[in-house]
Amino acid sequence: xxxxxxxxxxxxxxxxxxxxxxxxxxxxxxxxxxxxxxxxxxxxxxxxxxxxxxxxxxxxxxxxxxxxxxxxxxxxxxxxxxxxxxxxxxxxxxxxxxxxxxxxxxxxxxxxxxxxxxxxxxxxxxxxxxxxxxxxxxxxxxxxxxxxxxxxxxxxxxxxxxxxxxxxxxxxxxxxxxxxxxxxxxxxxxxxxxxxxxxxxxxxxxxxxxxxxxxxxxxxxxxxxxxxxxxxxxxxxxxxxxxxxxxxxxxxxxxxxxxxxxxxxxxxxxxxxxxxxxxxxxxxxxxxx
Length: 289
Prior knowledge:
Blueprint: E1 11-28, E2 34-54, E3 59-62, H1 74-86, E4 91-97, H2 108-123, H3 130-138, H4 144-149, E5 153-156, E6 161-164, E7 172-177, H5 184-189, H6 202-208, H7 215-221, H8 223-232, E8 239-240, E9 247-251, H9 254-261, E10 269-276, H10 280-285
Parallel strand pairs: 3-4
Antiparallel strand pairs: 1-2, 2-4, 2-5, 2-10, 5-6, 7-9, 7-10, 8-9
Helix pairs in contact: 1-2, 2-3, 7-8
């Protein structure tokens, strides 16, 4: 494991993106949340966070994200929650290198929050288990627990009921990010969203996959996403991750994915990344000494 920076050094960790390989909405609950089924897999691409312990209980985050107050940022909220839960007298300086687009369906904010919980649990020597950290993370967002646990997983409920799926193929992905911010709440509240997909089990999910029930509504409300899907489908079957806006196709090799990426119009932001059944955060934080 990475050494604790008692000498005031920085601990730097990745905060990887995730893909929803499918996303089925199986019902709407009385509290307004939706029951879903999805298959999460990580990629070796994402944000980066650096942490340094403070002894004065203060938290700082740099740089500021335009339009997001510091105390509203999921990173600071995660750190405050951990302070409150553990009664830790310590604080932290946190530096964020933001790579993933906001509103892209790649889980960037949730991944940042999870990495913060994992890092500060380690640096503050709190000794909380992954189960305890995942439970804390759920109060920050439905996707946070999968990043805390760090394993590709079949998810149910609102996304918090996780069953590890370590046997997934780990292909290369081409991920295209239309320049539009999708409002997740707007998608889940839309009257046109399908909410009655029949539940499936893990075996069926692994055998036949599934679709993204949000995709039709998103492409109707955000034509940029539909245009990107139509373009990428000319090269390889494409689908949307989460509530969008990002879309992806899988390939057998990095070379093949890069070849398609090179053919996309210049206005498209795209990247190629390797699928991973273990989060890059866990690979760094829990690697053998």
